[in-house]
Amino acid sequence: MHRLLCLAALFGSLLSTHTFADKSDLTGDPNLWMNVTAFGEAHLLGNELHLLSTGNWFYLTKKRYADFELTLEVNVPKLEEYVNSGVMFRGQIAYKADMESYEAYGYQAEVDPSDRRWSGGLYEQATERQWLFPLHPERSAPGEHLKKNHSPEWSPEKAGAFRVGEWNHYRIRAVGPEIKIWVNDVLTTHVTDTRVSEGHIGIQHHGSEAFAKHRSAANTVKFRNIIIEEL
Question: Which CATH superfamily is domain 25-230 in?
Fold first, then answer.
């Protein structure tokens, strides 16, 4: 019996270690990331990644992911200047001649500190589909790939989940066509969508005019504890 208990304990320990080993902290290793555009800056300060850019920009993982659970924290400043960010997943890249640079496109968990309060919504960056949830009166064309919205109401609880100027916890789970997004433990998006099945992870800075003109760092977007688990 003692031997059986020891074997069970050993197996449980190995299983626990394996589960932990499947999670990767992406935050602090610059070798895991890439900048495919001609602009945008990412700086590692302590355990935080600080983003600044003159234009809309995504800092991308080199690795591509299919099914995963991603957790991270994001903090955006409260400014008069436009502030916006997001987390791209299953992202793709393509060369844009007019930019003389590559561009990232794909699903995006929104970080929206504006009065609209759509943080945790689902956007498809740089495609004709744009807003998948909530639906925008002029900029939504989800098409045949959006099979089902399991939580179609944008409720006051969802709108109020994000807190500007504080650290906000995001959890993104993508398994097959099923996509879920939580903001501070509030399930904001739950859809079945078949458009893209794998790709890069990316963190966004939407651009700062103050940074472009004066090198002001006031509009810095901060990320930390970027943990991914492949499923």
Answer: Exo-inulinase; domain 1 (2.60.120.560)
Confidence of residue 61 (pLDDT cuts 50, 70, 90): very high
pTM of the model: 0.91
pLDDT digits (tens, 9 = 90+) for 210-219: 999 999 999 9
Q: Using the 8-state DSSP alphabet, how is residue 140 labeled?
A: B
Q: Which residues contact 155 (CB under 8 A, 6 or more apart)?
A: none
Residues 6+ away with beta carbon under 8 Å from 72: 87, 169, 170, 203, 223, 224, 225, 226, 227
Q: What are the boundaries of each domain within the chain? A: 25-230
Q: Quick count: other Cβ atoms within 10 Å of Cβ 163? A: 14
- Dist CA 198 CA 65 (whole Å): 5
- For the stretch 36-48, pLDDT in tens is 999 999 999 999 9
